[in-house]
Amino acid sequence: MARNSNSNRLRSGSSGRFFAALLGLFSGAANAAWELNLQEPATAVARRVYELHSLLLWVIVVIFVGVFAVVAYSLVYHRKSKGHKAATFHDNTTVELAWTIVPALILVAIAFPATSALVDMRDTSEPDLTVKVTGYQWKWGYEYLTGDAAGVKYMSVLSTPREQIENKAPKGEHYLLEVDRPLVVPVGKKVRILTTANDVIHNWSVPAFAVKTDAVPGFLRDTWFRADKEGTYRGQCSELCGKDHGFMPVVVEVVSAEKYAAWAGEQKQQMVAVAEDPNKVWTLDEQLALGEKVYTTNCAACHQATGEGLPPAFPALDGSAVAKGPRAAHVEMVLKGKAGTAMAAFGEQLSETDIAAVVAYERNAWSNKLGEVIQPAEVKALRGK
Amino acid sequence: MQATSHTGYAGHHDHDSHGHPTGWKRWVTTTNHKDIGSMYLWFSFVMFLVGGAMSLIIRAELFTPGLQYVSPEFYNQMLTLHALIMVFGAIMPAFVGFANWMIPMMIGASDMAFARMNNWSFWLLPPAAILLTASIFVPGGAAGTGWTLYPPLSIQMGMGMDMAIFAVHILGMSSIMGSINIVTTILNMRTPGMTLMKMPLFCWTWLVTAFLLIASMPILAGAVTMLLTDRHFGTSFFSAAGGGDPVLFQHIFWFFGHPEVYIIALPAFGVVSHVIPAFSRKPLFGYVSMVYAIAAIGLISFFVWAHHMYVTGIPLTGQLYFMYATMLIAVPTGVKVFNWVTTMWRGSLTFETPMLFALGFLVLFTIGGLTGLVLAMTAVDIQLQDTYYVVAHFHYVMVAGALFSAYAGLYFWLPKWTGHMYNETLGKWHFWLSMIFFNIAFFPQHFLGLAGMPRRIPDYAQQFADFNVISGIGAFGFGFSQLLVLVIVVQTVRGGARAASRPWDGAHGLEWTVPSPAPYHTFEDPPHFDQAEAHG
Amino acid sequence: MSHPASASRYFVPQPSYWPLVGSCALLLLASGAVLMMNSVANGGFVVLAGFAVLTTMLFGWFGRVIGESEGQRYNLQVDRSFRWAMSWFIFSEVMFFVAFFGALFYIRVLSIPDLASPAQAALWEGFQNSWPSAGPAATDPFSKMHAWGIPAINTLLLLTSGATLTWAHWGLVAEKRSQLIIGLVLTIALGVLFLGLQVFEYAEAYGHMNLKMTTGVYGSTFFMLTGFHGFHVTLGVTMLTVILFRVLKGHFTAERHFAFEGVAWYWHFVDVVWLGLFIVIYWL
Ligand code: HEA
Ligand code: HEA
Ligand code: CUA
Ligand SMILES: [Cu+2]
Questions:
Q1: Looking at the domain assignment, is residue B16 inside a domain?
Q2: Domain boundaries, chain A
Q3: Residue A164 near residue A172 (C-beta atoms within 8 A)
Q4: Which CATH superfamily is domain A129-273 in?
Q5: Which fold has domain A284-383?
Q6: Which residues line ligand 1 (CB under 6 A)?
Q7: Is the Cβ pair A219, C122 closer than 8 Å?
Q8: Distance CA C107, CA B242 (A)
Q9: In terms of C-beta density within 10 A (0-12 exposed, 13-18 middle, 19 or more buried), how is residue A112 classed?
């Protein structure tokens, strides 16, 4: 069976309705997706889990068949219509003891492999590389803490275009399982993942690695994997985290050590290159260009590209009292968020330049034509407070 | 006023001024366990349709990849309400309905111990249902957190969340009062000669269930109360910044939540323990071990909660402990399964609708239980947690388990309640349609889960498309098949062949010694308890 | 005019509207509270209406029960039912407190030490494992509630009230009505005094110690646990007052006085919860 991540099934774009789906179902064409088992493991731990699951599957199938063979026999031979007369027995200590003890022994037997696989899974000691993963509504933040790429830090956002989700364009091969910037790690190295979250609980999960760990706000949890093979591995956020829970995939790119080193070098260079000068003075046009980008990646999920939001859960910014009111309050809202709502404190995620740009964008986009420029220095001053 | 009008048998000698209300007043004021039982059952059926309609919205949205009919927020709200309504509005009240109808009749009591409070337990349900369903229409919509209501997500929600919280409080009150009533009835109102170890198993399962409810519902009430104060009064139980922990909520929730799943399962076991012997024409095998198994399940269920939390980062030792403890539950449950199987062995089996549903229960519940065991293995659960494998597991135990068992009980006792036999042909249709469509709907979800499809998502990757289509077809087929119940029950209430007092020749128990339909006041005085009716 | 209870027949009450009234009351209370908490419309009035309906219902319903009891409609079997029911009710209350004590235990033994552990140092640098604590993000200083002031006095008050209540019970059993009345009055007075001191303590906390609901987990657990306990004391005092009035009206006999005993059990339960609170909230 082919691995899911490779399954290559293209569907007609209008597959939004019943019949198209039925056709797809019965056409039998290239249905590599009739996946019946766990995804193909890509780490030693995942292989152990795979084997453990296979073992359990056999155990429960055998128990099931055993029990229901007896039932089937009764159903066939002990029916009234065949003239079978009911026996009257209703107790037998020996068999009752037997079917208490035997299952218990079976359980003890499977407890051994189950325990050792788990102990292995939890052993995060001596990693070659540590990455901190932060869950945001609804994107992942990666920060390399050690290794070649130490210090590299970026966000990873779903890259499937909106039109595909809304059935206005044919769905691509990796529909919903693709991101703009995957996590990149070297093959054969023990990677320790530290998870945490910024707003609500998320869960960082990659089935091929048998990795799935909650990202709990305010706490760090850890897990690890050592990928055998180069390739792209995909997973999804696995803890309900609100509206776009279904739209925050995890993509891990496993590359050779050389490629990884090269990638790390590139990232570091770029970081230096784009390191903004917080004292730069921006013009309105420059700011709007940058601001729109920042807005699309960070804000549009809730406030929508149109600025209309999804009231009342997510307020409109077009015409909003805050977006048209005093600048300080607006900047502050973005910097510090609002406790108890989905509005996060973006001061921890975005640079002063980005915040200045996005606020300026909001104050000029749609019908909010205020014509204001906001300099990063202004944001910096407010952040200090 | 005449002394007789107060000797207790309200409504029997109503010569006095406040006679017996009729029409709708009868139903809102009633203190009769049969009336109240019927109200519970009707309420639960209505809620089942409402919750089911929500599940159809879910399945329709999931029919193909892409966002079709509803927005993701609304999807989450449907998901949450579907679960809350099914669990608290449909399945639990259904079994409380059975308890109300049957326990007094089974133990030879005049009514429930607290007949007036019994009425309140029922009438608390509609306000809770109103709060839950109305929350869809308030600003911000209903809670979109899943039925587990995990913070901090539940802190972000709008006022719909508060409505859900208060609904849970009210449902909790209802359950606690109902349970106190049931425990007291069972412990104090058995007819002379009916010792606990001669009591019908359904009463035993309810005794333990009621205990679980009294012990666990207050815990849930506490959990949602802390949620409420975290939301509105600035406490920090579930916020790390203030020294709390979001995972604390999960511990408290599941300390309630795991017993809760047995609250759903145990009465179902009880019903099946009556149906299988009746249609095997053979006494229940291993009555005593059944009782011990029920008690063991009830007890162990308080010590396994964190098997829902394997991926939250609890320490390894915790994972190991909870894994072993969870595995342990398979043993008493296995005892029950084996006892049912042996009851049928060398019986004289017939396959009327109640028996068919009991058999469906047996097969499918065992499948669900066995997949539960797979989930109990922490290492495997880490692959499967929050995937459709879990969804498949719990629909097998809750729909094919609890719901099928409720149907078995419905067909089994309907003749006693109405005095008429139901339409056997339609009943069989109902069973076979349910059985087939249920499996079409939920079996493929195992594969989806194994392949890694997360639960609680409104849209999914392409490789999951095919099984979701199948599952959707099954769900719609299953859902519409359930409308047959309405037809059958209404038919039976209005007419049909007259039912004998013991319409099933293999059935035992005091309830079968009275005419069908059972008189409004069944046992005015404690009846004579014939040992032949022991164990129900 | 008395209608002696039949020994063999169980009492089943007449149809009654009170349950429905109670449900309406709760619906009003819940919707009112939702509106209030979300500052929509005027929820306060709805809550008040809910309270009014609830009070009416309680008076009506319990009035009915008391009437039935005094009319001797309850035989011994009914009496036993009441005892079972009250015991299970108290058990459910115990479990309610278990949730909050459990939360406190978890916070003190697991979450605070975990937040202060090296594993979390990257997030909460410099946070120390100590109790009381308002959490790693706290900046506002506050002071701790000490055990040996008001709380110790309150402990004495409640313990004494347990004794006076038992003394009253002896009076009831021995047909010494004046001892019964004095005992009840003393118990109620001690309960009220307890509540008064608790209000004072809260005022101190808010006014001078900067200890609030919002003071991290310490404030949260402190006010939730003592608050719910205080609420239960209030209920207990109310029930004792009802009992006192019934005694004054000549209710209860030496043999049959379940209502008195039920309330007494409740009072002792509230007492025991307080001891738990005193130890884990104030002392340790
Ligand atoms: C009626 C309800 C019900 C019942 C009875 C059960 C029964 C069991 N459940 Fe299930 N469960 C749920 C309802 C139920 N569950 C729900 C609602 C959820 C999800 C909640 C949510 O997240 O929303 C859940 C989730 C759930 C999880 C968490 C999954 C996850 O989120 O990752 C786990 C993990 O251990 C689990 C395990 C079990 C086990 C071991 C049993 C056992 O009791 C099963 C025992 C039965 C058998 C094993 C079969 C019969 C036995 C034999 C034939 C004997 C021989 C057998 C052996 C020797 C193995 N369940
Ligand atoms: C006992 C409880 C119970 C019952 C009976 C059911 C019954 C069903 N459930 Fe549900 N379900 C849960 C408990 C239950 N469920 C829980 C606890 C969850 C987890 C939620 C969470 O994650 O938080 C869940 C989640 C859940 C999901 C997962 C969603 C997700 O994770 O994204 C799905 C998806 O297929 C589903 C489907 C169904 C279906 C098709 C039925 C069918 O059996 C329903 C069949 C019945 C009908 C379809 C009604 C028929 C009525 C009509 C056809 C007419 C309608 C007319 C009127 C209203 C007048 N359920
Ligand atoms: Cu993030 Cu789900
Ligand atoms: Cu469980």
A1: no
A2: 44-122, 129-273, 284-383
A3: yes
A4: Cupredoxins -  blue copper proteins (2.60.40.420)
A5: Cytochrome Bc1 Complex; Chain D, domain 2 (1.10.760)
A6: A 63, 67, 103, 106-107; B 148, 261, 264-265, 307-308, 326, 329-330, 333-334, 337, 366, 369-370, 372-373, 375-376, 381, 384-385, 390, 393-394, 397-398, 401-402
A7: no
A8: 10
A9: exposed
Distance of CA A84 to the CA centre of its chain: 58
Distances (CA, A) of C80 to B181, B208, B211, C77: 13, 20, 18, 5
User: Which tens digit of pLDDT belongs to each residue from B398-442?
Assistant: 999 999 999 999 999 999 999 999 999 999 999 999 999 999 999
DSSP 3-state assignment of A252? strand
Contact A246, A222 (CB under 8 A): no
In a domain, B154, yes or no: yes
Main-chain phi, psi angles of B288, to 5 degrees:
-65, -45
CB contact under 8 A, C3 and B217: no
> Of the candidates B75, B293, B276, B116, which has an alpha carbon nearest to the alpha carbon of residue B204?
B293
Query: What are the structure tokens assigned to C155, written together?
Result: 């402990």
Among B44, B145, B205, B333, the one annotated catalytic? B333
The predicted pLDDT at position B5 comes to 35
C121-144 pLDDT tens trace: 888 888 888 888 888 888 888 888
B65 lies in some domain: yes
CATH number for the domain spanning B173: value is 1.20.210.10
Residue C133's nearest CA partner among C228, C227, C223, C221 is C221
Residues C62 and C237: beta-carbon distance below 8 Å:
no
Q: Which of B82, B420, B446, B502 is catalytic?
A: B82
- Longest CA–CA span in chain C (Å) reads 79
Cβ contact A61:B373 at 8 Å: no
Any atom of ligand 3 within 6 Å of the Cβ of A245: yes
- Kindly report which listed range (A34-38, A190-194, B114-118, C99-103) carries the lowest average pLDDT score: A34-38
- Report how far residue B312's alpha carbon sits from residue C100's, in angstroms, rounded to the nearest whole number: 21
Question: If you compute the radius of gyration of chain A from its CA atoms, what whole number of angstroms results?
Answer: 28
Asked whether A251 and A183 are in contact (CB, 8 A), the reply is yes
Distance B326 CA to ligand 4 centre (A): 8
B174 annotated active-site: yes
Q: How many CB atoms lie within 10 A of CB A279?
A: 9
Strands A139-144 and A183-186: unpaired
Q: How far apart are CA C281 and CA C229, in angstroms?
A: 12
Tokens at B227, concatenated: 């949620």
pLDDT in tens, A85-103: 888 888 888 888 999 999 9
Sign of CA dihedral B455, B460, B462, B465: positive
Residue B161: its pLDDT value, please? Answer: 94
Range of the domain at B153: 35-533
Helices (H), B5-146: 24-29, 33-61, 72-84, 92-107, 115-123, 125-134
Exposed/middle/buried for residue B182 (C-beta within 10 Å: 0-12, 13-18, 19+): buried
- Strand bridging mode A183-186 / A191-197: unpaired
Helix ranges (DSSP H) in chain C: 18-37, 43-70, 76-106, 112-115, 150-173, 177-207, 216-248, 258-277
CA distance linking residue C137 with residue C234, whole number of Å: 35
What residues of chain C, 51 to 80, have a C-beta less than 8 Å from chain B? 61, 71, 73, 77, 80
Q: Is residue B23 part of a domain?
A: no
Helix-helix angle B72-84:B125-134, to 10 degrees? 170
Q: When comparing pLDDT for B6 and C270, which is higher?
A: C270
Atom of ligand 2 nearest to the CA of B480: 53
Q: How far is CA A277 from CA A280, A351, B409, in A?
A: 5, 11, 75
CATH number for the domain whose boundaries are A44-122 = 1.10.287.90
Atom from ligand 1 closest to the CA of residue B366: 49
